[in-house]
Each structure stands twice: as structure tokens, then as C-alpha cells.
Amino acid sequence: MPTYSAELIETMRAVLEEVMTKVPLERATPGLKAHMAELILKAAAEGRTSYDGLLAAASDQIQTLLAMLT
Prior knowledge:
Elements: H1 6-20, H2 30-45, H3 51-59, H4 62-68
Helix pairs in contact: 1-2, 1-3, 2-3
């Protein structure tokens, strides 16, 4: 199991909060937020650790997740 620095954890939290602002409010459920967090964690585990890299990884999946949950 990977371990993350406190700085990276803060970056991941900030990315999660930003990406959730891109989700329509009526669709921003705790379940969707959990899925987005999982995507961010997976991206970090794969070596994407910059804010922009994590944000891109999560943002690219918003429409896919929303379609799956419809």
C-alpha cells in the first residue's frame, strides 16, 4: 500500500475540492465525491503527484462518472 506525504495529501484534498466544483450541484453526491477521491488516489499511486496532473486525471473522468450514475 502506498504512503503519501502530508504535502501530497493536502494537494489531493485541494484537487478533490476543486474538481467537485465542476460537478453540477444536484449531482455532487457523497458517492460521486468518493469515486472522484478514488480516481485521485489511483492517479497518485501511478505517479501523478502534481496538482495539475491530479486535477487533469480527475477532471477527465467527470462526464464518465456522471454517465455511469445516471
